[in-house]
Specification:
It contains 4 helices and no strands. By secondary structure, it is mostly helical.
Amino acid sequence: MDLTIKSLVKEIKEDNRLFIKSLYNHMRPEFMAWFRKRIYCNIEDIEDTYQRAFNIFYFNVKEDKIAMLEIKANTYLFSVGRNIMLKVLSKVPKNETPIDN
């Protein structure tokens, strides 16, 4: 399966639900594995991040908001997911204890 964004545009714009579901399920395991290895957080946060990242990817492709159509879809998706995860993690309170001098 050619996963450059350019190769996916037609199917996404035609709203081919079977193709979109297949694409979602195809890219999910690699996304989950990549984030589990690199970012320390719970699995639910990674699943939520994937859902949000895929939705952003889908709507950006559908609305012609992606300029670089030659890049791989997973590169774009991982980049969106990373940005989402960094925002989520920046809002998590840190367990800081004051240090007495």
